[in-house]
Specification:
The complex is a heterodimer of chains A (301) and B (162). With 301 residues, chain A is mainly alpha-helical. Chain A contains eleven helices and no strands. In chain A, helix 2 runs parallel beside helix 5 and helix 4 packs antiparallel against helix 10. Chain B is an alpha+beta fold and 162 residues long. Classes of the chains: A mainly alpha (301), B alpha+beta (162). Chains A and B meet through helix 3 and helix 9 of A and helix 1 and helix 2 of B.
Chain lengths: 301, 162
């Protein structure tokens, strides 16, 4: 019991992080192999599907390149800068790491909801949602600026008082957990798990373009946030994966950049500065109001 | 289930903020097991010959200026590196490498010890060399609980910031 209250060193934490990183990848490869086998047996295997999966991995490579060159140092600068304003003095123990993971999931919930409901953030996150398939490889399909928006929400962990390294570890842990949600081979888990945790079933709903599934199940590790904040939907009808308007390509360059390209094109073609700016913050699907007529018809009394 | 979800964004924001602050407060109330019993005594390094507190400073980079050791017995004084509410204070000509500063009068504890290398001897706290007992890295500012030592000996390694 005492180990839970003992100090956890930065070295221990980064060793653990490396260990988790490696095993997530090994397990994901294993599950993906099973998924491919299942596609084969069911006669659903196609070059298109393999191309889509390959593209998913290429977007990950591009995303990681951007993360390592830009965002990890930005994370460092923002986190250590914000730590100066820490609200509480929090020692790094396993207890505080566990509390931080739960809170990291709460900040993830809001960050994730933000990337779905704010146009300029959706531009990067819609890359993750643009595959018409659902398997382990989709977990690695990321957009170019996914990290940029995440920083805005993760930084609150540091402002609360968690050590920057702990906050980074916990934010990453919440992402790593979600890798395993991207599969169709797990149907439903026992109800107490489905009630509290985010599961493949809940996350299939999140990736659905069915009207009743849009903007649902934002949670990372826990689904309780969605139940609490009214964004939960249960998986009932079969899920149609992807965007409401499918991109219809597996070209990795188009997949990686289509969100920002569409945003830019939409901003350019939207009339009026106010509407152009509104386009950046309004949810996907928003259209500027039609120009109002100069005079209203007079009341006919 | 029976509970109705919160649909108002404003209420959601308040609930979220409350959960964040509550979680932070909870995590901050957990004190490390080793830190609850001050280090010097738990490690049994009380010097039977020497009375009081002995401060061993290492990593002094030059013999310029003075090595200033300040000992605090309260958290707030440590947090502000107070120049008024300390329990003991010594200044000595710096010696490159290691130095020992004795406080024979300090027999109570727990104490937090800070060392400042005032290289330009201007009696100001510039960004020169610093160290605090219990400090884990150059940018770590340990709270009093972690900095606390009992009479005996304590070792501090200097960190330089310029």
């Amino acid at each position: 019991m005492e180990t839970f209250f003992a100090t956890v060193s930065a070295g221990t934490l980064s060793t653990l992080e490396g260990f988790i990183n490696d095993w997530v990848v090994y397990l994901a490869i294993g599950i993906f192999a099973i998924e491919l086998l299942k596609y084969l047996v069911r006669g659903k295997m196609s070059w298109r599907l393999l191309g889509d999966s390959g593209t998913n991995l290429l977007t990950q490579a591009a995303y990681l390149t951007i993360s390592y060159t830009v965002f990890y140092s930005l994370y460092g600068a923002v986190f250590y800068g914000a730590h100066e304003f820490a609200l509480f003095e929090i020692e790094t123990t396993w207890v505080s790491v566990i509390v931080c993971i739960i809170l990291a999931d709460l900040t993830y919930y809001w960050g994730h909801r933000f990337t779905h409901r704010v146009g300029m953030a959706w531009a990067t996150h819609e890359v993750h949602h643009s595959s018409p398939n659902f398997n382990m490889s989709v977990a690695y399909r990321f957009g170019p600026l996914d990290d940029a928006w995440a920083i805005l929400f993760d930084v609150w962990l540091v402002i609360i008082g968690f050590d920057p390294l702990v906050a980074f570890f916990c934010s990453l842990f919440v992402l790593q957990y979600q890798t395993f949600l991207h599969t169709e081979i797990v149907k439903k888990l026992p109800w107490p798990i489905e009630f509290v945790m985010n599961t493949p079933s809940h996350h299939r709903v999140h990736h659905g373009s069915n009207p009743e599934y849009l903007d649902r199940n934002y949670g990372g590790m826990f689904i309780v946030w969605d139940r609490l904040f009214g964004t939960f939907a249960e998986e009932r009808s079969p899920v149609v994966y992807g965007l409401t308007r499918q991109i219809g390509t597996v070209n990795p360059v188009i997949v990686f950049l289509h969100g920002h390209y569409d945003l830019l094109r939409n901003v350019v073609k939207t009339p009026g500065l106010g509407n152009k700016l509104r386009r950046l913050v309004m949810p996907p699907g928003w259209e500027p109001p039609l120009p109002s007529r100069a005079t209203h018809p007079a009341p006919s009394d | 289930m029976g509970l109705r979800p919160i649909t108002s964004l404003a209420v959601s924001a308040v609930v979220t903020a409350a959960l964040m602050v509550g979680g932070g407060w909870l995590a901050s109330s957990v004190r490390t097991a080793t830190d609850s019993s001050p280090k010097a005594s738990s490690q049994g390094n009380r010097d039977p010959v020497h009375e009081g507190l002995r401060v061993d400073v290492s990593g002094v980079r030059s013999e310029l200026g003075n090595i200033v050791v300040t000992v605090y017995d309260e958290a707030e004084a440590l947090a502000s590196y107070s120049t008024e509410s300390y329990v003991a204070y010594r200044s000595q000509q710096a010696v490159t490498g290691a130095m020992t500063i004795d406080f024979q009068e300090l027999t109570e504890g727990p104490y937090a010890v800070t060392v400042h290398h005032d290289e330009n001897a201007n009696w100001a706290y510039d960004d020169e060399g610093w160290s605090t007992s219990g400090q884990r890295g150059a940018y770590d500012e340990p709270p009093f609980e972690r900095a606390a030592v009992m009479p005996g000996s304590v070792s501090l390694e200097m960190f330089y910031y310029d």
